[in-house]
Amino acid sequence: MAKLMLLTLLGLGLALFRDHRASYQARLNAFGEVKPVELPNCNLVKGIESGSEDLEILPSGLAFISSGLKYPEIKSFEPDKPGKILLMDLNEEDPTVLELKITGSKFDHSSFNPHGISTFTDEDNTVYLLVVNHPDFKSTVELFKFQEEEKSLLHLKTIRHELLPNLNDIVAVGPEHFYATNDHYFVDHYLRSWELYLGLAWSYVVYYSPTEVQVMADGFDFANGINISPDGKYVYIGELLAHKIHVYEKHANWTLTPLKVIRIQNILTEEPKVTRVYAENGTVLQGSTVASVYKGKLLIGTVFQKALYCEL
Ligand SMILES: [Ca+2]
Domains in the chain, please, with CATH? Predict the structure, then answer.
């Protein structure tokens, strides 16, 4: 009898495992095919070989690029080198990248592992760069002041908080104020794997300021990129494994109200909800994560590899 019970439980477990495996593969879009969509004039950005996971372009055309992310189970072409922040001036004819020097005595450069980034420009035109960092695979936000003349970043502060345990991306709404995505609920590596595999959708978004830290949205199946509309009224959150982009209304007290969900589907039909401007099967770019536009040009970044600059 005990053996029968054990076998039944084993059978049930295997069935559950198989069901979850199928849905896990669908969530990852593991067997999705990429039909190429080409742009007429694309060039790989010289000097980016080990990732450009996130980037942001200032209205002046200066682009910050986060490069060299090391993440469990993700390939790194420079495993022994710290990550870096690159600067690219998109006003140049054939723009190249320059590594920004980091100054400030309290910053440990050797463990720098930059992920999502965001800028905030003050009333006096001071540009702050906020960077998600994973020193020793932990999560912090590093606050820098951009010094354009010196082409450097002055490190001002490291922000850590118990509600910021698994940071992916941030969007700054003040010099020390931001919304951030936590892409997992658990910190433990083993529990994180199960959380993802079972599709628990416990990932969440936090508002941080020096005086208030609060979960503002939750229930995501891997909350990933986050951004804000140019008028500052709406916050967009990418839900990676559900293939959705959520649009939230931002209120004066920083709370978020869900407005609508854009599903990334029917992309190649007559009436797409989203237009695909560029697609490629991995021979040029692998694992693209981010793209932004400046004066008719498109800059595309990748998790661990190169970056591409195209005319739209
Ligand atoms: Ca970002």
Answer: 33-311 (2.120.10.30)
